[in-house]
Amino acid sequence: MSITRSLLDRIKLGSGSGLSPSLGKKLSYAAIVLILVFPFIPFIDNYWIDIGFYFGIYALLGLSLNIVLGEVGLFDLGHTGFYAIGAYTTAILNTHFHIPILILLPVSAIIAGLFAWLVTSPVIHLKGDYLCIVTIGIGEIVRLTMINNPLGLTGGPNGINGIDTPVFFFPIISSRQFYYLIWIVMGFVTFGLLRLQRSRIGRAWNFIREDETAAEALGVDVRHYKLGAFILGAALAGIAGNIYASKQMSVSPESFTFMESSLLFCIVLLGGLGSIPGTMLGALVITVFPEVFRPFAKYRLMFFGLALLFMMIFRPAGILPRKRDSLETLLKAISGKRKGRKEQAAEAGAEKSLTHPSVQPVPPANKRGGMLLSVRDAHLSFGGVMAVAGIDVEVERGKITALIGPNGAGKTTLFNLITGIYKPQKGSISFNGEEISGQIPHRIVQKGIARTFQNIRIFPTLTCLENVLCGQHCHGKAGYAASIFHLPYQQEEEQAMFDSAKRCLERVGLGDSLDLLASSLPYGKRRYLEIARALAVKPDLIVLDEPSSGLNDAETDELADLLIDLVRDGYSILLIEHDMHLVDKVSDHVIVMQSGKKIAEGEMCVVRENPKVIEAYLGTDED
Amino acid sequence: MKTFIEQLVNGLTVGSFYALVALGYSMVYGVMKLINFAHGDLFALGAFLGYSLLTGAAGKISETIGLWGGIAFAAFVVSASIALAGILVERIAYRPVYPSGRLSLVVSALGMAIFIQNGIMAIWGARPQAFPASVVPSARIAVMGAPMTVLQLTILGISFLLMLIIWFIIEKTPFGAAIRAAAQDRETATLVGIDVRKVIIFVFALGPGLGGMAGLMNGLYYRAISFNMGWNYGLKAFTATILGGIGNIPGAMLGGLLLGIVESLLSGYVSGAWKDVFVFMMLIAVLIFKPTGILGEKVAEKV
Question: Which residues from A are below 8 Å from B114, CB to CB?
Fold first, then answer.
């Protein structure tokens, strides 16, 4: 029993891959060499080279879907639609206008990307299964449209024939040439995706996958990154479509069925969600499996269905799940090729963060005193229930303000109004003198409000460091190109982010858990991880929703000390709390809420004596 | 007017197939929050099983007790066997995978669907089969001037009867209340003493049982059946489920009938070739503007 348990923990810690980094590296090199020399191995005839080509196509499609499904966690069961758009773009433009195939390669990518942007924009807010159904619908609409031959463009059920071969100084015709074409493209794509994975963008995708609400509440523009993933995924599928069309010299709707989308879905899940080598392995299994079972032609797909089933029963995380990088690996990745500048960059990073107010021991004088946040006459009702009924709340700079009140008083709802998860129906919220009510959460984070959640919302399968990097996200600027090409400013930015995130973790006493997965932390430490993540935003105001819930007395005392220290560092804090000892110990100002209204405020010792407050908590004698 | 009534009744017939299949999707989704991708293929399995029975054993019965007797016998055997198959699907493909999360369930559901579909192909072949005319009743009557077959009217009658029974079970019996409770909150349902395991087995038997029955009726109605018909019907029925509000039992029936009528009118008056495109666009529009469907209720996410 205990062996099983520790084994499970081990799997969790190692993210299940079981491959040591050095062995993994050796295997990757071996795989690359094998792919390079494959067409020249004796006994490998054109038939098998073609299978190698289709392996490449499926690997590319798998990687393109992996961005959407694996990295961002969006169920996309209509990915073939984008593949079809790429293939038909190539086919139509080539046969009608005789544009060379290789020029159409980027064109197909762009058209497929544009199409994805167009069709997913209105539905990107849908969650889980609903989005999944929409993508099924999109895939089917594309296929049916191709069958219906609009304007005589798509050739109906028979599709389009007579597509040219690509010409790259020489025509690419033979199986071997096509094989190298797809794998060269794959090489570039893999390189770019590996870089993206280990960047601000890849991390943002993962934050969204792990917990969309938490990601948005900590400054990630969720909509933007979801759309970005769809567009990039579609563009890559479009490239696959282009190469596929020119290899086949024809396209027809039969190649783009729902079954095909399901296969792609299975490739990603078989290989391991979010894992690039895993996805390739998944593609290998899917392309080679039918060949191995060719003698049993009649039963092979039946076996395939069974294999999927057993795979999900016995290895649900996939063959090669992604292993999260340690800080060391991450640092090596950004400074490996610039050893000379490594020290320099580290220093620059350290200097930069030292000058930042959040890590300075004494906050700037102008940060002391004055109003930081003021909520005026805020209203919000759910159906007939007035959750927040015209409340005024003010938070002073450099103070700890506590919001207390019985359950259902509307405290968390007020927090959600302040942090932008809900919009007030009436009233105003101003922060640093600026109106913020009605803005989306990630914008409010940028203005300097960071929060934690009542029921802890960390990103369980990411490391502690990565969790905290989420708070840093809104301060970064590096986009797709900068992340793929490792532009100097992106490298410095990453370095500074790591340094700063590390310091935030040290600040809450988690300096030794950088590389641990967040899910492996005990409950109490997860609270601290959430606080560190909020600190990484470098906020003026930290909003804590019941930070002591689930902590024992000793841990609560520790928490109180931390909060007092944080205020000394120059932060202002607004907290919801039920533990009156904690409130008594740390708060400068207490606001009591009941039924969506403020019933008292002042210092704790005064508020405690207020008859209204006593009544709210204990009820009156008369009943 | 004659065409309209014809189209309407055709739509209702197809719609009742959708509705019966949609019920299975909806019940399973309600309790499990799982899209049972294998459901459409169980429907196809029902059609093929019915075909074999009517051309084999039940055909012999028909000779002694008449055409309708044979069909009734086939219907009984098909529903029972597909219900059993549904229980097996849950036992083999889903129960061991529950702990691994939603994504793994989607894949094992797809795996099961591929398995059943190709199993049908392995047994009955890749070419479409046709119910021989000798086993399909061909009597005709005219309703308001529109010619119809007795078979079609019988199918409609039985479908509505089945839906009525399901509605009664779900809404009016204590066991139905247990199902609804499990659909709203599985954990709390367990806490108040509902045997959720039993509920799960029940919905996995009832849903496919109805689906198999619909498969048989579909085969009798169109005569032609093919091993991959499950994908398409499954997708349509699933669309119907969304239209009505997923997890909502009357919604599934309403969605199915509505979808059948809309499809039929579209192909009758607009364009048969584009009708499926319209249907899927309608699906997306519903998800954008009223994701809970016609009868579904909104569930707010707690932050």
Answer: 259, 262, 301-302, 304-305, 308
